[in-house]
Amino acid sequence: MSNELVMYTDGASRGNPGPGGYGAILFWGDHRKELSQGYRYTTNNRMELMAVIAGLEALKKGGLKITIYSDSQYVVKAWEQGWLKNWIATDFKGGKKNKDLWLHFYELAKKNTIRFVWVRGHADNPYNNRCDQLATAAADKGPLHVDKVFEEESGR
Description:
Nucleotidyltransferase, domain 5; alpha/beta; six-stranded mixed beta sheet; about 30% strand
């Protein structure tokens, strides 16, 4: 089996902020795994990033080449254009959001070789569309977990 993994991810939020969820699909050879989770109060960007984190957390080993397809310019550009390294170097100065998730992602990312590819959302990519279905169903049907850091930062 090759050491290449393909992941599709998407996040959703009703109201932004509001109830949200993420969906991810991991492909490893002939294997496919779908992940999703809902949260009672969060944002779209947090869910886009949580989808990636959940996919990486599901891996049982490191040293993989991973291609992650996302319709989030925020997530794709943060990694591919080096924004995240600048945010970390400046301790997220200037009100950069989601520091907790970005730092967690960064630690997970170190274990593998990751490349992000942007895909147009709500278009003709069946895997992105499936991730959107997983994310919205998780947000709408629950069970809804607590995005503790975001709720604390929001004063809820």
